[in-house]
Amino acid sequence: MTQRVPDKPVITVLAAPGEALPPGLDSLAEMAALRQAWDAESLRATLPGAHVLCVTDFRTGALRQAWPCADRLQWIHATSAGVDAVLIAEVRTSDVLLTNARGIFDRPIAEYVLGQIIAFAKDFHRNWELQQRQEWVHRDTERVQGKRALVVGAGAIGREIARLARAVGLTVEGIARSERSADPDFEAVYAAHDLCARLPDADFVIVAAPLTQTTRGLFDAVALRCMKRTARLINIGRGPIVVTDALVQALQEGWIAGAALDVFEEEPLPENHPLWRAPNTVVSAHMAGDFLGWREALIEQFIEQFRRWRRGEPLHNLVDKGRGYVGATKE
Description:
By secondary structure, the chain is of the alpha/beta class. Helix content is 27%, strand content 17%. The strands form 3 sheets. Strands 8-7-6-9-10-11-12 form a 7-stranded parallel beta sheet, with helices on one face. A 5-stranded parallel beta sheet has the order 2-1-3-4-5, with helices on one face. A two-stranded antiparallel sheet has the order 13-14. The protein is elongated.
């Protein structure tokens, strides 16, 4: 059912505590009434009468508590690739449209992944450690060309990872919800139930899947034991896709050779957490896709979407609320 767009709709922006209104959003002031919330209490105060909810805090849990106040909401936009924070049961079963920031972070995240692959192969981390101690230790390193990568999550981000990885000579397979008979960017794309069968062949395993009911805890002790002892795990998807205790054990006991982790089950990663000092492990602060200017790019995307919505045109990046991610598009 198509809902009427009011002449001057109300937009509520749900930001992280302490954050100001995103830069550039004030350009909509003549076309919309802008409100801002930071938590459940302020969202309950600003959601009544709002037609659009723009969520810039991808960790928020406020929407679940404030949902009963959403009396006119037609569209939710998440300024992130993952929508797990806002895809609560009430949203899933409602008529409210849900869109995300697909396209903004694809290339930067792929560059991060490629950088980690090269860093592992060329032993950059060990070079840095030796430099701090002023030790000259010659070693041979690996070639990237000829290695095999398995990208778990063959969506837009996974596809960009595959393109860059193939450009430097890796053979890249993908894991998706269902098998694909042919794909221009992957040597092959297998169904999710084939994960453990494909893991033993991969030198680099990249987690790029969204967090859904089927991917939560996907990389448990069983999956990690299926990997080569020489393989490295790179997670830029969502932290809860990998079972932290199992990963710590895998790294400490040498089930796998290392990990590069940008996302975690608990963020920020607590002080003194064993992952900080796990062998051959690189930790970054959920920043793989954050390039200079990313905030402005996100708001530009939202403003363009808002203009489309106001004109009654179809929105880009419409999330399939049953699956939890944007459906396949022609590329």
